[in-house]
Amino acid sequence: MDPVKVIEIKKSVFEDNDADARRLRKELKQKGVYLLNLMSSPGSGKTTTLIGILNLLKEKLRIAVMEADIDSDVDAVKIKEATGIPSIQLHTGGMCHLDAEMTRQGLSGVETEGLDLVVLENVGNLVCPAEFDTGAVKNAMILSIPEGHDKPLKYPLMFSVCDVVVINKIDVLPYFDFDMEKCKEYVHMRNPKAQVIPICAKTGEGVEAFAQWILEEVNNWKHN
Amino acid sequence: MDPVKVIEIKKSVFEDNDADARRLRKELKQKGVYLLNLMSSPGSGKTTTLIGILNLLKEKLRIAVMEADIDSDVDAVKIKEATGIPSIQLHTGGMCHLDAEMTRQGLSGVETEGLDLVVLENVGNLVCPAEFDTGAVKNAMILSIPEGHDKPLKYPLMFSVCDVVVINKIDVLPYFDFDMEKCKEYVHMRNPKAQVIPICAKTGEGVEAFAQWILEEVNNWKHN
After folding, report:
1. Contact with chain B for residue A125, Cβ under 8 A
2. pLDDT tens track for A42-87
3. Which of A169, A202, B167, B173 has its CA 20 to 30 A from that of B107?
4. How many CB pairs lie under 8 A apart between chains A and B?
5. pLDDT, tens only, B157-173
6. What is d(CA B156, CA B158) in angstroms, rounded to the nearest whole number?
7. Subunit contact A176:B172, Cβ cutoff 8 A
8. Burial of B214 (0-12, 13-18, 19+ CB in 10 A)
9. Which site among A95, A175, A203 would you substitute to test the B interface, given the most B Cβ atoms closer than 10 Å to its Cβ?
10. Smallest Cα–Cα separation from B148: which of B182, B112, B124?
11. Chain B within 8 Å of A111 (Cβ-Cβ)?
């Protein structure tokens, strides 16, 4: 007995993922549903960050969450329990990323009617998810302090495709050799327009700034 | 002017990677070169751990290192500077893993004559590298404390294919909710025979145990 819905999604049959992603984006625009694609390494704190944001936004927006994972449903259960927000689990069957068709399969399990925002928590991976447009309006990523400030040098595409880079676990800054200014410089080498938001999901520090970014994004998109 | 050799490796043309990996393993056995495939998430401390091990083993074994990365050559330069051990950089051209043919292409840039051990530092990724046999004798992985003890639940294949799981950054255990006993239990759910070695690459704690594991591995393999 699963407390959350689990969908086994299949690899896309579409040759042209970019075209398919544009189609999905258009369909979602017509429904007024903003899709945010959240990416990161394993263990950077995506789920904890998401819980913080959802609790700040749930009175202002109607939200649903799709948790993509190779296996397990721990994240979807955690989100649902901690926020009360509808959350489903997508199993990728070993696939290391989601493409637009896989995202569409996931959305078929969500009651999108009347929703403002769907957050897709992508598979924990800094490589493959960056290569596949999911159909999201914007991409966000989380880099955590223990991973090191050099990551934009090593995973250039991920940092190029993200509009906002959230830097999590700033509470442990004293224990790691992480240079925040260098990190910002490297992020901006990859994407000069990327916003960088330092946070600590555990204590809640800075989480409001990320929630505010999302809220403004959704509102601007709805009225454009 | 690059201080280290950089090889741009291409996607494999072989349909059957498993057969190709077996072939490569056999070729290396004939040469007496033990290939160790080291995997982990981005930022778990693969390179720092490797530097510690190499400095402990370099008087006992003749070693070379291949650093695989999407881009940049920071790791190969760091290894060479910190250990004096021959180190080359493999650029995967966006590919998220190495297969056996890519590994063979990398090895073509290494002077394997007379070597005992080649360490392949795979692309930082807990998903795809687990799916492709590189031709290595054994797989090792590093999980770091900040990533969380639940990772074997979420990335089952990676933990199934690894013979040793090194748990790095134990110096920051007090600052994270990481349950070492749970982690070991989850690792052994995936692979009951996996050795778990807690270390701190930064301070050197426990690194000798990992070096010892490698030394025994290489020696046993040479004499069997």
Report:
1. yes
2. 889 999 999 999 999 999 999 999 999 877 777 888 899 999 999 9
3. B167
4. 113
5. 999 999 999 999 999 99
6. 6
7. yes
8. buried
9. A175
10. B182
11. no
Mean pLDDT of chain A: 91
Please report residues of B whose CB lies closer than 8 A to that of A94: 127, 131, 157
User: b vs e for A198-211, b when ≥16 Cβ sit within 10 Å of the residue's Cβ?
Assistant: bbbbbeeebbeebb
Which DSSP symbol is given to B173? G
Q: Is B153 on the interface with A (CB under 8 A)?
A: yes
Tell whether A152 lies on the interface with B, counting CB pairs under 8 A. Answer: no
For residue B200, the distance in angstroms to the closest alpha carbon of chain A comes to 12
* CB-based contact B173:B203 (threshold 8 Å): no
Instruction: Return the structure tokens found at B39.
Output: 């995997």
A153 contacts chain B (CB < 8 A): yes
A149 to chain B, any CB pair closer than 8 A? The answer is no
Query: Which 8-state DSSP code applies to residue B93?
Result: T
Rg (CA), chain A: 16
Contact B129, B122 (CB under 8 A): yes
CB contact under 8 A, B43 and A175: no
Q: Is A195 helix (H, G, I), strand (E, B) or coil?
A: strand
Strand segments, DSSP code E, in chain B are 6-8, 34-40, 63-69, 87-91, 117-121, 138-144, 164-168, 195-198
DSSP H or E segment with residue A118: strand A117-121
Count other Cβ atoms within 10 Å, centred on residue A15. Answer: 7
- Beta-bridge partner residues of B120: B37, B66
Segment A117-145 mean pLDDT: 95
User: What is the ipTM score, two decimals?
Assistant: 0.78
Instruction: Round to whole Å and give the CA distance between A160 and A164.
Output: 10
* pTM for this prediction: 0.85
Q: Which residue has the tokens 């070991």?
A: B184
Kindly give the residue spans of alpha helices, DSSP state H, lying in A11-94. 17-31, 46-57, 74-83
CA within 13 Å, CB half, B145: 23
